UniProtKB/TrEMBL annotation:
It comes from the Bacteria. InterPro entries: ThiF_NAD_FAD-bd, Ubiquitin-activating_enz. Gene3D superfamilies: Cytidine Deaminase, domain 2, NAD(P)-binding Rossmann-like Domain. Residues 180-252 form the THIF-type NAD/FAD binding fold domain. The lineage of its organism: Bacteria, Pseudomonadati, Pseudomonadota, Betaproteobacteria, Burkholderiales. This is THIF-type NAD/FAD binding fold domain-containing protein.
Length: 570
């Protein structure tokens, strides 16, 4: 016999029992004395620790429960009918033995409260029960009775059939989510537990996986309820988002994630407490803060774990997801600019015509503005990103960097994701001013190689576009624009033409939204070399002509060289 924690409705329609624990034999009078002490009754719902009794069939000649090959619909509605059915199942001896002992104990009870018990009959079938690996079909019933009143095989007290259902566990959730169970879990660190981050976390938890570490320093405030998985009742808790979410994840049968309730930039990745979350292998850092400074911090961090980032843009009409490549190349910063390049092409980088439409006042003082956007819109994006997280958990991280961008259709329902696999970023050697870093993204690199192959034996070139950060002094070249048709190519030099060049730049920058713009020029050298005197003269002409800096990029057979000259302030 087992004792379960049970909850049931007094009208007899509903019940739920869980946490079965084996108890001492029925002939212990203390069992009946303690039974009513756990009862709680609010007039509608009751709860208590109640018995679950298994009545096994008699053994066959081999000492095993006898096989019952007779299948029929379950029409049992009373205890008398159940006793009759138990005879057919060859469980009657066990049932009568239970009733005899139970009635003796009931007589010793002075309480007259109404309570329930569960009776289960494991019936051995000739073959495994469909959908299981067991040959036992368990028929179970709930019966209500009043302590002090005895049970009888002729009693017409109603009984209700009940089912045995697997409790919440990682294994159950993985099977229900159509995921394989024979794979190791990813070790996920969630940096940011806001509207998008909390939804991704719940997608993972509901699929039977968990998180290793949650990082967020903020508590839930009123306007967060519009888009967060947490509820209004959580607003009043003196508990951070990460702490509250960690407790919720545990309720899905997963281990409780560790929590760092401060800014990620304060975390010591080398400390014994946290370094295991940022190793190589299946460790993944999921950044949903949408913060450029957090992105830059993670990109410069020296841990081995790859970074995945996702965020929404333009009130949720566009979004991106990036995953660093092996060895963290391309980096999370490289990939965001690759994503921007893709989003530029669909007009998603354009500046809003009215800046007032971009913010919503929700109070006074710090953190009193937010972006107007519905929970449904965040969920639309979170579903796709969450699905990708589950795939990474099943199949491992990709062999290259990944950038995915999405746009929501004008109908507000349809969404289109475009996925690019991105190779390593090339690093140019910067001459004359080594304070600058010049990074050539894979898409631009491949186009440059194709252009060089198209013009063998001569120098070729064109325009370069991308982004410059004067704060970090980092230049990211995202793409190239073709040279003007009046450009000249020879073995000794490349001269960029002017026909249509200004229009080409304006057309590109019209969709760049002050995020992507023309950075300068590139050309090839036929031999491995740095800048020539002629290149330096050309770079000098670019000084002060472009936003933040002007770049002259050189492609040679073994890599890239670059000259950088100061530009305008913006």
């Amino acid at each position: 016999m087992f004792m379960c924690t049970a909850t049931w409705s007094k009208n007899g329609l509903l019940s739920l029992a869980r946490d079965p624990q084996a108890v001492s034999p029925l002939n212990d009078p203390g069992f009946m004395r303690d039974l009513p002490t756990t009862l709680k009754d609010d007039g509608v719902i009751c709860s208590a620790r109640v018995p679950l009794v298994f009545c096994w069939p008699q053994a066959d000649t081999n000492g095993l429960p006898e096989v019952n090959a007779q299948y029929k619909a379950d029409k049992v509605t009373t205890f008398a009918e159940l006793a009759e059915q138990a005879t057919e199942w060859r469980c009657r001896v066990a049932l009568d033995d239970f009733v005899s002992n139970f009635n003796r104990l009931l007589g010793a009870s002075k309480s007259r409260v109404e309570i329930i018990l569960y009776l289960a009959f494991p019936i051995r079938r000739p073959k495994h029960v469909i959908g299981t690996q067991s040959e036992f079909e368990v028929m179970a019933y709930r019966i209500s009775f009043v302590l002090g009143a005895k049970l009888s095989a002729a009693d017409n007290t109603p009984v209700t059939p009940v089912a045995f259902i697997s409790p919440v566990s990682g294994a159950l959730l993985r099977r229900t989510s159509a995921l394989r169970e024979d794979v190791g879990e990813s070790q996920l660190t969630f940096v940011g537990c806001g509207s998008l981050g909390s939804k991704l976390l719940m997608h993972v938890a509901r699929a039977g996986s968990g998180a290793a570490l949650l990082v967020d320093e903020k508590r839930l405030v009123a306007h967060n309820v519009a888009r967060h998985v947490l509820l209004p009742e959580d607003v009043g808790r003196l508990q951070g988002k990460a702490e509250r979410l960690a407790n919720i994840v545990t309720s899905f049968g997963a281990m409780r994630p560790k929590v760092f309730g401060d800014d990620i930039r304060e975390l010591d990745f080398s400390s014994a407490k946290f370094r295991g979350f940022f190793g190589g292998g299946r460790c993944l850092v999921v950044n949903t803060t949408g913060s450029p400074s957090v992105r830059e911090f993670l990109a410069k961090a020296t841990f081995e774990a790859r970074v995945m980032e996702s965020a929404l843009m333009n009130h949720g009409t566009a979004a991106f997801m990036t995953v660093e490549g092996p060895g963290r190349n391309p980096s999370t910063t490289d990939l965001i600019y690759h994503a921007y390049e893709r989003l530029r092409g669909v007009g998603a980088l354009k500046q809003p015509t009215d800046s007032k439409e971009s913010v919503l006042e929700i109070g006074v003082g710090c953190h009193s503005v937010t972006i107007p956007m519905s929970d449904a819109r965040v969920s639309l994006i979170a579903a796709g990103v969450g699905q990708k997280l589950l795939e990474f958990g099943q199949d491992g991280l990709p062999d290259e960097g990944v950038t995915a961008v999405s746009t929501v259709g004008s109908d507000g329902m349809s969404i289109t994701w475009s996925v690019d696999h991105v190779g390593p970023t090339q690093i140019a050697r910067v001459y004359d001013d080594e304070g600058w870093a010049v990074r050539v993204l894979d898409a631009a690199h491949e186009k440059i190689l194709n252009d060089v192959d198209q013009y063998p034996g001569v120098e070729t070139g064109g325009l370069i576009v991308g982004n410059i950060s004067p704060l970090t002094r980092q230049i990211v070249i995202t793409d190239i624009l073709p040279a003007a048709p009046d450009s000249t190519r020879s073995a000794s030099r490349f001269v960029l033409g002017v026909q249509g060049t200004v229009d080409s730049i304006r057309e590109y920058e019209s969709l760049g939204g002050r995020t992507l713009w023309c950075l300068g020029t590139w050309h090839s050298h036929l031999a491995v070399s740095g800048p020539s005197p002629m290149d330096r003269d050309t770079a000098r002409l670019l000084d002060g002509t472009l936003r933040y800096a002007a770049v002259l990029l050189i492609r040679h057979p073994e890599g890239y060289a670059a000259l950088v000259r100061d530009g305008t302030l913006g």
